[in-house]
Amino acid sequence: MTSSASRLEPRRTADGSFSLFSREFGEGFHSGLGALAEAHSKFVAPAGLDRLGAGATLRVLDVCVGTGCNTAALLEACQARGLELSWWGLELDHEPLRLALGDAGFCSQWQAGTPEQLAKLCSSERMLWGDARSCLRDVLERQRGQLDLVLMDAFSPSRCPQLWTLEFLSGLADLLQPQGRLLTYCSAAAIRNALRQAGLQLASITAPSGLLKQTSDWSGGTAASPSPLDGDPQLRPLSLMEEEHLRTNAAEPYRDPSGCTERAEILRQRQRAQVLAMASGTVEGTGAWRRRWGVGASRHQ
Ligand SMILES: C[S@@+](CC[C@H](N)C(=O)[O-])C[C@H]1O[C@@H](n2cnc3c(N)ncnc32)[C@H](O)[C@@H]1O
């Protein structure tokens, strides 16, 4: 068995916060700019917590809890607003959280008591350990149409397509109450298209300009909701460029009808579907779209 030390490599990101690099997935848990900055700009700020009055309960699912950074940031934001948190978490691997809670730097990046609250949540019955695809069924049984917020923070679609399929994202969409929001750092066309097909309305997350420039992203990520996402300063409507992105072959969704398809097979099936769509002449190639808009490639798109 591979040891956690070789699978997961602790990293300090540019804002000084703790993160990990997964050798298994070949990807960092957060952008190098900052785990904490990302938690705030892509998950906490666009959550629209001010919609809820003090004393209200925020019902949330953290998909891919990892080190717990997003949940810890949300815990502190709820505390500052006097909100109660009704929390669910999905995660395959115990090691990221264990490594984070055992790291003095990680623990000192939070207010006193936050690491303990995080540890308590993650040892509760609402922390569902295992493949998120099967664990999601348990949450759906108990929380369908009930959640205010879903934080979707899986590895990028090409590394972990299992958690970005039309089927999985539709399951997450089914958890949301009418005004609920799903938030993700990802602005890939396949993911936005799948969320739209799942019946959600889309908005782009307006990340701080520093984050945008350095990652060459045009968007800070995606917010999706059963209701229109108007009037939130952290969100904006999709631009014409982003809408046209959803009409390219990159918008072909990842599919997993059985709920247990292997990564390689999901990628193969999508590639076949993209070739067919291009041959039918109904979609534009992403290369042409990139050239037209002067857009470079990014792992999140
Ligand atoms: C990008 S990291 C999550 C980062 C996390 N939100 C944080 O703040 O540290 C992706 C996580 O997905 C988990 N993961 C990978 N495949 C999974 C699966 N099939 N089901 C559930 N979790 C999975 C990994 O163990 C990893 O912790």
SSE map:
Blueprint lengths: L3 H4 E5 L5 E5 L4 E2 L6 H10 L12 E7 L5 H13 L2 E8 L3 H7 L2 H5 L5 H9 L4 E3 L2 H12 L3 E6 L13 H10 E9 L4 H9 L3 E5 L3 H7 L6 E4 L9 E2 L3 H6 L17 H18 L5 H8 L8
Helix pairs in contact: 2-3, 3-6, 7-8, 8-9
S-adenosylmethionine binds next to helix 3 and strand 5.
Please give the CATH architecture: 3-Layer(aba) Sandwich
Widest sheet: strand ordering: 6-5-4-7-8-10-9-11
Envelope shape: globular
- Stretches with pLDDT under 50, minimum 5 residues: none
The helicity comes to 25-40%
- By oligomeric state, this entry counts as single chain
Supply the CATH class: Alpha Beta
Bound ligand species: S-adenosylmethionine
Instruction: Provide a count of the helices.
Output: 13
What percentage of the residues does DSSP assign to strands (E)? 15-25%
The biggest beta sheet is recorded as: 8 strands, mixed
Count of spatially separate domains: 1
Count the beta strands: 11
SS class = alpha/beta
Gyration radius, rounded: 18 Å
User: In sequence order, what are the helices and strands, one letter per element?
Assistant: HEEEHEHEHHHEHEHEHEHEEHHH
> At the fourth CATH level, what is the homologous superfamily?
Vaccinia Virus protein VP39
> What do the pLDDT scores average to?
93
Distance between the termini: 34 Å
CATH topology: Rossmann fold
Describe the structure.
By secondary structure, this protein is an alpha/beta fold. It has a single domain, classed as Rossmann fold. The chain is built from 13 helices and eleven strands. The strands form two sheets. It has an eight-stranded mixed sheet, sandwiched between helices. It starts with a helix and ends in an 8-residue tail after the last helix. The structure holds S-adenosylmethionine. S-adenosylmethionine is lined by residues 29, 64, 66-67, 69-70, 90-93, 96, 131-132, 153-155, 160, 162-163.
